[in-house]
Amino acid sequence: MPPLETPSIAWSLISPQLILIGGALALLFVGTFLRGYRIGSAYSAFTVVTGLAAIVASAFIWKRVSGGHGEAQPAVADALVVDGFSVFFTIVICCAVVVGALLADDYLRRERLPGPEFYVLMLLSASGGVFMAAANDLIVVFLGLEILSIALYVLAGYHRRRGQSQEAAIKYFVLGAFSSAFFLYGVALTYGATGSTNLGSIASFLRDQTLTEGVLLGGIAFLIVGLGFKVAAVPFHMWTPDVYQGAPTPVTGFMAAAAKAAGFAALLRIFFSTFGTNRLDWEPIVWALAVLSLLVGSVLAVVQTDVKRMLAYSSIAHAGYVLVGLQAANDRGIAGALFYLLAYTFMILGSFGVATLVGRRGDERHHLDSYRGLARSRPVLAFTFTVFLLAQAGVPFTSGFLAKFYVIGAAVESQSYALAIIAMVAAVIAAFFYLRVIVVMYMAEEDGQAELPRVAVPTGAGIALFLSLGFTVVVGFLPQYVFDFARHATILHL
Amino acid sequence: MDDFPYLTTLVMLPAVGAAAVTLVPGSREKAVKAVGLLFALAAAVVAVAVLIEFDTGRGSFQLVSEHSWIKAWGISWKLGVDGISLFLVLLSALLFPIAIAGPEVHRDPKGYVAWMLLLEAGCLGVFLALDLFLFFLFWEVVLVPMYFLIGGWGYERRVYAALKFFLYTMLGSALMLVAILALVFLHQSATDTLTFDLVALGRDQSLAENTARWLFLAFAASFAIKVPVFPLHTWLPDAHTEAPTGGSVILAGVLLKLGTYGFVRFGLYLFPEAVVDLAPLFLTLGVIGIIYGALVAIVQHDLKRLVAYSSVAHLGFIVLGIFGLSSQGLQGGVLQMVNHGISTGALFLLVGMIYERRHTREIAELGGIQKAAPVFAGVFMVVMLSSIGLPGLNGFVGEFLVLVGTFVTHRWWAVVATAGVILAAIYLLWAYQRVFHGQAEGANATFPEMTMREKVVMAPLVVLIVFLGVYPKPVLDRIGPSVSDLVRHVEERTDYRQPPVAAEPTHGSHDPALATEPAAGEHE
After folding, report:
1. Secondary structure letter of residue B281 according to DSSP
2. Which of A117, A157, A285, B499 lies 20 to 30 Å (CA to CA) from residue B82?
3. CA A23 to the chain's CA centroid
4. Which chain A residues have any C-beta within 8 angstroms of a chain B C-beta?
5. pTM to 2 decimals?
6. What is the pLDDT of residues B366-388, one digit of tens each?
7. Is B167 in Cβ contact with A432 (below 8 Å)?
């Protein structure tokens, strides 16, 4: 019997994944022994350290694979590829872990949901996202997608005593499973058309011959459906408002940041790189998705009175902007999409961070009225939220403005003027509902409503908000380094 | 001191001031105002230093400070001043301290002063930016403080007015950003350099005629909303009326100028051909604005709304001067921007003082104030006459140059616009008559006289109104060369030639002796 042949594994290149998974397992293991002890913020702190360790590991890998002299390296045979692109997304997702864990710390104690499982799920979910970013095989993309999603389904229902949370979990699970099926079917059709699930092989196959039959088109379409669901692009967005509203608020923040980033990592790599030769087939579809997401997201957000729901719709619109970058299908567009996702991660986590605090015990005060007079009772918190909202609206000297500028610039460069104008108009519509929250915080009249208890700002959440605020503002003034980071995070073929 | 970064300091000072103000405890209202005023005055001092350093004979950009900022996009922090922006900068540096110190602030002075200073930084940035990206940043960022000033410190319908102001203006800039990007990338494909530098983009570009027209219209949409040019003016009466006094002063005095300045600096410079082609359209809109604004102003019951509509009319004159495309007209247009800032700013301050005393702006409820407060009435009259354009006061010089300059290039528009001067006399004199003359009844009989502080606030404005009316030469000498350069820039790139008679200041820039001749103005 011949010895079983195992693939060569470059362990150091997948160290971020290993750190995340290792951290999760360690937490699970230790957690079983510590049940019943008062552990304070230890779990959260451990998660933050794990996330930071993964970021540091990524930084080392970045030096090896990016820039002018670096090149893509296979990690596990040809199934994983480590290039600037995958490292970029690893860092984005790990940032979401760090900020998300900081936000969750006090939240879990406040809602009396003890135990390390929350953080275990968060780390596992992140590892799935990181696998997706580095996947060089459609099957691995699917594996990553499932690891990411299943952990998120559980997290969405983590608030055991809230019906809404349960509802969100069920909805997310049913629709998510459905979309996974679409994705799998897309993989099957693509395999049927090209004879491989390996992204590199598919690309070289498509370079060599022109396919005219519809099997590949079907595959492309189904892949778009599956990934479009994950990134919450219209018309695959139906789950988003309910799930974002129902899930525990820190989970919503993490989900909005990490799941979207991972989904886009796969989407950008598969379409821009692998199906690059078939650009003319998918560009119109992406164009339509972008326009729909921008307009539907912005317009429906205007009529929301629940802040979490409003942010959900606004995150749909944000997906539209990233799609604008993909649609441009040039280097600037991809770099713009990456920059957008990084900036968005901090903006959205910060926004949901504020919503976590204002939601107060029970996680239920998310109506616009709960923000009434926040500027008086908590001026710094109100100001912080204002910055996040203005950044999302794309006001200058914030990272959000530069993100929009980058993707719209890419669209103009590729002469998609109509799309650029639609994107800007959507930004104006969006500005309306961001301003509405600001109006409530700063300018609303006293209406004799029973005073709500003053919003508490615990340390962990404070650090998380400070980090997000710092990133949003500092990058708004000095974007050069982050621009370069996004520009050098190119997708490379094996 | 040659290399001292005057302009960067000028933009940064108010921004630093805003940060400093937030550090002062909010309970100490006097200290808050003092710190804010200190920084605004410091900026004014720097602005005066810029005036002193300014080389009068030159038309090009001076005191340029340039630092590479975002290399990947060819974006730099580039500021510079020329004759066109110089006096707008000075105007801003003058009006902001007045807006901070002048009017009473009834709640949270800390926020008010901080937003004012940020607004100042933004406005100065717009006037000084020579990089299109930087310009757009400042252009957009101006919205935020103004939004908060209207929404936070305004009158009854302030939230509505603030939102309308923000969305209206943002919609305009949405198109402009796309146009800026298109311009830059078209320039890149023609020259292989990616740059947002205004001078480079204006100097060597080769846009197809149709493309240039579309791009200009996209820019123009943004500027026209800000000015506002006639059909796009509906946000203005609301914003002006609901804004607090200081906000109105800045809105009318400085913010509206951003639009007209944009037309001059970016419209004429970047798209000369399109401007020449589309000039009749904008001249017509300008004239409609003059007549329409005046007619609507006549029938207003609210004194503040009346002044707001008078702005629409006055800005029409400036648009006329710009698109008349003659050196004289442009010079008059730029001068009129400064004049309008001074006199309308002063009018809003005075209306604010009336409101403070009587808690109404209804013209019908006022009357006979002159007897109770003669000094107040006197100051109001001087300011009002300047706004009408009485010879000897500043308004006349600008309007006259505009009309003369437009007459030689676009005769019939100038003829119709002249009617606006008469209409201005009607609505302002009539308003004055109703408010100040007649029998004073009730509270009007005990209308308090101007306080010392109010006199101090009004004094520089009144002095300037008279000074610029009698002796505008120092200002015109500095505006002239830049305007001539701009018109020559347009002529070099199009078939358009201005009639020699309208080009008077052009000769001046070649021969300094002639440049000292005050433009037409008082003699004719």
Report:
1. H
2. B499
3. 21
4. 390, 395-397, 401, 405, 408-409, 412-413, 417, 420-421, 424-425, 427-428, 431-432, 435, 439, 442-443, 479-480, 483-484, 487
5. 0.90
6. 888 888 888 888 999 999 999 98
7. yes
